[in-house]
Specification:
Elements (H helix, E strand, L loop, with lengths): L1 H22 L13 H7 L1 H9 L3 E4 L4 E8 L2 E7 L2 E6 L9 E7 L3 E2 L3 H7 L12 E11 L5 E9 L2 E13 L4 E10 L16 E15 L2
Antiparallel strand pairs: 1-4, 1-11, 2-3, 2-11, 3-6, 4-5, 5-7, 7-8, 8-9, 9-10, 10-11
Length: 219
């Protein structure tokens, strides 16, 4: 009888130990999985920023010109802006990864006729008192069908902003770079012509713009 009780007690102990072992949670293995792509990209942020900053920057130098041609009374007339600034990010090894910013002081307009200059500054035309500057900003360049390069950006003139693609020819010079090209805009798209000046009988709507900018490496 005693042996039977002892055997039963031992069996209870063994069963109890087995149940405790089954209830014990399995130890959690350390997470050795690689971080998700987003985390990896975040950790690579400084390197990406450094790559962007590595694109050479250029600033306008002396000898740059910004001119325009318009038809007045059936005859071609020319003018220019004497004060403007240009900033270019450009790498000839990766030309599409660039940017262009141009700021023009409209009051610096010169058409070789002071009376006409004063007229162009009035509220019915450029309204230089209210809109003293024009701005062109492009954050990217693209290849044209002919294999050329153009800036994809926006022109803000007289408070109106519109998309504008600028053809770009960029060549090396002894001092740095030269950026040149030509395009056309319609003055009435930007409100340059109020009242009687909305008529295109005296002054045509289309204005041709030519630019040749000397650039040196930014310090």
């Amino acid at each position: 009888m005693t042996n039977y009780i002892t055997w039963m007690a031992a069996a209870v102990v063994l069963l109890t130990g087995a149940c405790h072992a089954a209830d014990t949670p399995t130890a959690t293995k350390p997470n050795t999985a690689k971080p998700p792509p987003a985390a990896a990209a975040a950790s690579a942020g400084p390197a990406a920023s450094a790559a962007t900053a590595a694109v050479p920057h250029w600033v306008q130098a002396q000898g740059s010109t910004l001119t325009f041609t318009f038809d007045q009374a059936g005859a071609a007339s020319k003018g220019s802006f004497k004060q403007f600034s240009t900033e270019l990010a450009y790498d000839e090894k990766n030309p599409t990864a660039g940017s262009l910013n141009v700021k023009v002081q409209i009051a610096s307009i010169d058409t070789q006729d002071q009376e006409r200059n004063d007229m162009l500054a009035t509220a019915d035309l450029f309204d230089t008192q209210k809109f003293p500057t024009a701005q062109y900003s492009s954050g990217s360049f693209s290849r044209t069908a002919a294999g050329g390069l153009e800036a994809v950006g926006k022109l803000t003139l007289r408070g109106v902003t519109r998309d504008l693609r600028l053809p770009l020819k960029i060549v090396g010079t002894a001092a740095g770079l030269e950026l040149s090209g030509a395009t056309s805009i319609k003055r009435l798209d930007y409100g340059v012509g109020q009242g009687d000046w909305k008529s295109t009988e005296g002054v045509a709507d289309e204005v041709k713009i030519q630019y040749k900018v000397a650039l040196v490496k930014a310090k």
